[in-house]
Each structure stands twice: as structure tokens, then as C-alpha cells.
Amino acid sequence: MAAILCAILAGLCWGVGEIFTKGAINTKEIGPLGTALIRAAVTLPLALAGFLVAHLVLKTEPQLWWKAADAGGMKMSTWAKVILGSGVLAGFAGVFFFYIGLSLPGGDISKLRPIAFALAPATAVLLGWWLLGEEMTIKKGVAVVLIVIGIVMLAGGKKSAVDHTSRKNAAASTGVAES
Asked: Is residue 126 predicted with pLDDT exceeding 70?
């Protein structure tokens, strides 16, 4: 249950955090890469503090990995997985493409965030099964299919009448012509 609570808290943090991020990018005072740079700069000291809490208090970090690395304890393949997977793909590339998308016309967070953050678990389920040998169940398969259907529904199609009407009403109330 604690793992599920952590996942819920992570989702809430990401959801609220990305609303602030989109709001900042919308100001045009900072671009997507400046935003990603600030994110990385803020993340590093917090990650170091988090690591110490995880190691000393929660005991979820099994060892001081930098000491094991000096003694030849951490394999090169582990380093490659962490650098490529966590650093390059999840840490930079995912943020890079997501923030660029938010800055582009049509980059509504209400559309892009559900697509990006629904595709991630669907990908994890399939690659976990295929590459890591995790169990694939009917329940997981149905969930992946439903996620893909949701992504297709969000990504495709024309704007709804409700969307058009609300934009027209918003434009009229602010005195700005609708584009």
C-alpha cells in the first residue's frame, strides 16, 4: 500500500507541478529549455538531500553507491542503464519533448499531459513484460488497450462545439478577437 501511496503522491506532484510549468512557459518570459535547465538545477540539491534521507532514515538505498563504484562494485551495465535510462531518456529527453510541446501552438496541457503520462505506463507495462520478464495479465493488457484508446481520443479529432463555444465566450469577455 505504501508503494501505491507514493505513486499517487508522485502523480499529484507532477500534475500540479506541470500546471505551474505551463503557466510559466505561457508568459513567454522563459522558454522550454530554460525551464528544463531550472528544473535540473533545483532537482540536484533536492535529490542529494532525498538520497541522504533514503539512505540514513528510510533505509531504501542499500549502499553508498559511489563507494561501491570506486571499489568496482557497480557494473558498467548498471551505470549505462542509469545514465541512459534515468538521465538521458527520462531526465532530459522526456522533459525536453514535453516542454517543447507545451510551448507550441496547440500545446494544451489538458491534452499533452494525459497523452505523455498515459503513454509512459503503457510503455512500461509492455517493455516490463518483453524485456524484464514481468507477468503480462489480461488485466494489464486491457489497461494498455484502454490507455491507447484514450490517447487516440485525446490526440485526434476536431475541436468540440463546447471547446469552440467556451473559447468564443472567453474571447468576448476579455475583448480579444478569437483566432
From this structure: yes
